[in-house]
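Subject: sequence -> structure tokens, single chain

Hey, anyone have a minute? Need the predicted structure for the following. Not urgent.
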Amino acid sequence: MISRIDLRGDALPEGAALRDLLPRAEFDVEAALEKVRPICEDVRHRGTAALIDYAERFDGVVLEQIRVPAAALTAALEALDPGVRAALEESVRRARIVHRAQRRTDHTTQVVPGGTVTEKWVPVERVGLYAPGGRSVYPSSVIMNVVPAQEAGVPSIALASPPQKEHGGLPHPTILAACALLGVDEVYAAGGAQAVAMFAYGTGECAPANMVTGPGNIWVAAAKRYFTGRIGIDTEAGPTEIAVLADDTADPVHVAADLISQAEHDPLAAAVLVTDSPRLADAVEKELEPQLAATRHVDDRIVPALSGRQSAIVLVDGVEEGLKVVDAYGAEHLEIQTADAAAVAARVRNAGAIFVGPWSPVSLGDYAAGSNHVLPTGGCACHSSGLSVQSFLRGIHIVDYTRDALAEITHHVVTLAEAEDLPAHGAALKARFDWKVPGQ
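Reply:
Had a minute. Here:
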């Protein structure tokens, strides 16, 4: 069911050569970009009318308005199963603990007597958050987007989620309940690229946003790329990924369960095991069959994901080589199930989130670890971070110099300005003083 890649024996290649040997889903955002371009421009010119048309075309629902009525949010929360509500509340509580600790404070540095630079942290003014629909419902994604934005102090928060035919054209009621639980009352029944366009351009119902975050399908990713520069984005999220670095100490039952847990998201989901233990590899493969027999979404999601080109068992000579492989892969989710897992995890450079040992599975992070599950995919963990409070903050430097402090540095500024053939830059300082070159 799951293929093998044997990297034992020879020295591992470096950089891109190693990355090219590893499995990865095909996810052509550039090709999708050409298809979302006319949709985005249609929303720009026709606003809400275009959104209503696309809801009928793509979601099979006829809407009179895009914004979800406040009464529907209240009703969804009141009808929510008490057990689900308790779980969501605990997830929110833990997420707030972690994200509140991320909030940066303004800091003033005295560079010289009379000269200071203050770094001031200011939240973006308005964000549009996206909660996907489709195969599954993700109230957890509502929490993961809303909590860091709220803890950052964003004053205006709106959320979009695709309309659902079986729910009268509204987003899924659990999505609405999560919004109500978090105090988000501006919610729109809009999905895909058109939802991103709504936030980027604004419509009669929805004011434009400064930033759009949240996971979605390839059309959402393509729309984010289309609007990069006009709005801020978190990442172009691709299919979800799990990589497990494991040695002979790992429990094959745990490893198989964790690979399956990510594979059930989507047929393009990636499940990768990197191990120096052929015994573990054999045991994990053997364990997949009984676990698949006991779960759902097998034929339409899990089996296509595990058997696809994006998933594999990668055999390496040792944990040291395994570290090189997982760093080259840059997984969205990386589990370390080895002897002395914490020490091994501390050496990882590239991962969206790292889960240490057998009692920290990715599923915990998806819901209730307190960490954020909106993470970089497709190898982007080598340069990008997951969603956090910092995602919604901008650092602004405030420069405050006295006359004497400016006078003391003027000759260096003039020298550098003239070295760059920008004499007016130096003249802007000299105009403030009866200035001449020192020593003349």
